[in-house]
Batch of 3 targets.
Target 1
Amino acid sequence: MIEVKNISFSYNSKEVLKDISFTLSKEFLAIMGPNGSGKTTLIKLIMGFLKPLKGSIRIFGKTPEESREFIGYMPQREAIARHFPIRVKDIVLMGIKKRFYTKDDIEMAKKALEEVDMLDFWDNKFNALSQGQQQRVLFARALVKNPKLIILDEPFNAVDLPSREKMIEVLKEKRQKGKEIIVVVHNVNPILHEIDKVLLLNKIKIAFGKPKEVLNQENLRRTYGIDVQIIICEEGYCHPLVGDTHA
Ligand SMILES: Nc1ncnc2c1ncn2[C@@H]1O[C@H](COP(=O)(O)OP(=O)(O)OP(=O)(O)O)[C@@H](O)[C@H]1O
Ligand SMILES: [Mg+2]
């Protein structure tokens, strides 16, 4: 159970989030909004990396700092130092956060890499991988501890279609096992049928609710400031044509 209540946040005097509230209960949430709308900031508040100016966040009844061990986190691409000479296995093991790793830890790391088809790269240098391969390794790191809450900030950027499908398949399984999942995406369509809720964000909460209720022309216009083309497909689902904006 995740409870975000009346959160506001400013960098110096620049307000980036204003009065954000929502609740999740064993659900899969997609956060959408234009560049600079505060998505990553909201994630960092939930992780406890930033402190809200106003409001409160509870994760399984605890503060973000207290809950960090239950959270698997994949930061947005830009936030990761990719030139540091570190191996794939060490990246994944970082998700376990221990000084010394046991045989079981190694097994868990291998299993997580296997889940994203990257086990062959166990001993490879992380910075010598392609962007999409790096994304998959970081996804494995977020999953390695079998976290109760999985938070992914633009996980599918630069990831090719088969790998993306694989990642979505893994998320579906986690969702079925009752995990909470929060994913920031520009293009919601690949996960539209998997998510329970959508949060449309642009400094304020534009809308929060089931994708069928939230993803309409009016809400998308208020979020992105332009008319967003929508394709209406099966079972009344609206597919907004908002593409990926990052490399
Ligand atoms: N460390 C910081 N110091 C000052 N301002 C910041 C900082 N980080 C982000 N901002 C500003 O806060 C606003 C929200 O940024 P944030 O990274 O949360 O947006 P975002 O929705 O994740 O955007 P994107 O889609 O580009 O990832 C932006 O205007 C950004 O310039
Ligand atoms: Mg961001």
Target 2
Amino acid sequence: MSCFIWALIIIIVIALLSACWPLFAVLAILFAIWKIYEMTYYKSDKFLNMKLRIDTYIQECNDLNQHIESLKDTSIIAGRVDYGDASYKDASKWNYKREHLQNQKYAPNVYNCSRTVCDNAKKKPFEYICKYFGIKADEDTLVKFENILNNFEAAEDGKNHLRDEKNKILASIQMEIPFLIQKLSKKKLEQKLGFEEIDMSTAYFPRYIFKYVSSGGNASTQCDVVMDIDNLNRFVLFLSEKIKFNKSVAGQRALMTSKLRQHIKERDGFTCKICGASIQQEPNLLLEIDHIIPISKGGMTTEENLQTLCWRCNRSKGAKI
Ligand SMILES: [Zn+2]
């Protein structure tokens, strides 16, 4: 019976193909014509001249893109103790498949734990991250997480500014680009103009995983804590409450949160303190918060030691220090 059905399906498909082959042929020819047109356009003087004319803007976008990528690389504290490597051999007589243990790779942000720990971590994620990933609630840790938050928030801001700026550049040349290229070749157009791809994912945020797998490997549960901007802000507050500040410091110490970043930008009138560039002139300008005396040289997170800089000045300041 099933053989008969298959034969019937094959006969119908063949009949359809032979009935419609002129349609397929026409489609194939149209596709080939389109590809030749597209290729010719990207090699034409008209396109190349336009590309040359806006090249400075595109390069600036790509510079910002690279800067954002480097902001994302801010080191994450892998606080867990490295106990070394040991091979695991399951010598049990029982036919349990403990693949999760055999395939275990070194992953600093995964903690294999009991079901209770996993369940409790869901209720009090910050407490459990500190406890099981060896993150000490002290001034040093707080500074590191504030730095991560500061850089990651600049990276997230930067991505949006960059996307807007790219769209602005594309809009400025829209009238010169043929309709079909605009509609059917959007991605290739950006590539051919020289835009580097903007990575809009948030995969770089630190992720802490509590994982429980039963000894038989059949039951498992997992608690993921992603340190996104919101959680980083809350974690900074959480750490600061755990730390008993030195009295002389407590008066001036501010917490480097999103709120403070916004406050400093407003105080400085959304203007770079070095070159004077502002969002009035450049609406998509990425502004960052900088420690005037760097933390590495004893600078503190106090309002007096913070200033607004544009990403270009901040980057060249960073290169000098
Ligand atoms: Zn500047």
Target 3
Amino acid sequence: MPICIFCGAEIHDGDPFCKNCGAPVLKEGETIEPITIEVPEGAEITIGDGPEMTHDEARWVREKQK
Ligand SMILES: [Zn+2]
């Protein structure tokens, strides 16, 4: 019995969607690529809602870029 990769609920054979969370069921061999965000070196990074970083966020970004 396959299980939903999103919520872990059991999925009955032939069901196109998870009955528990409604996620589409992947066919055998299908995968979902993990989402990665690429940040070019030197690019400005905005964290949070506003365009201005707090002091701690700016420091965190600087340390990430080392
Ligand atoms: Zn599910």
